[in-house]
């Protein structure tokens, strides 16, 4: 199982700006790192920043074979939704 070998998914942003925009950084899944642009909304309340957004990625882009069962009669799609909801000070 890949989750046992690669238990952590990371995203490191290069920059983040207030408002609606794009956060660009490096997403690492199963030891494969790709630069992605992630649509986000960043708000500030006092000294707290809230970042939220969603992006669909393809499992095969990160070396993951989409799961299947019952002799390939039941399959999942290749897309996976990555959602970010972060609060920072």
Structure description:
This protein has 89 residues and is mainly beta. The protein has one domain (2-88): Beta Barrel (Lipocalin), CATH 2.40.128. It is built from 1 helix and 7 strands; from the N terminus they run αβββββββ. The protein has one helix spanning 2-5; strands at residues 10-15, 19-29, 32-45, 48-58, 68-69, 74-75, 79-88. Strands 1-2-3-4-7 form a 5-stranded antiparallel beta sheet, with no helix packed on it.
Keywords:
mainly beta, Lipocalin, 5-stranded antiparallel beta sheet, two-stranded antiparallel sheet, 4% helix, elongated
The first-level CATH class name: Mainly Beta
Report how far the terminal alpha carbons are from each other. 36 Å
- CATH homology group: Lipid/polyisoprenoid-binding, YceI-like
Unreliable residue stretches: none
Radius of gyration: 16 Å
Number of strands: 7
Sum this structure up briefly:
By secondary structure, the protein is mainly beta.
Topology:
Blueprint: H1 2-5, E1 10-15, E2 19-29, E3 32-45, E4 48-58, E5 68-69, E6 74-75, E7 79-88
Antiparallel strand pairs: 1-2, 2-3, 3-4, 4-7, 5-6
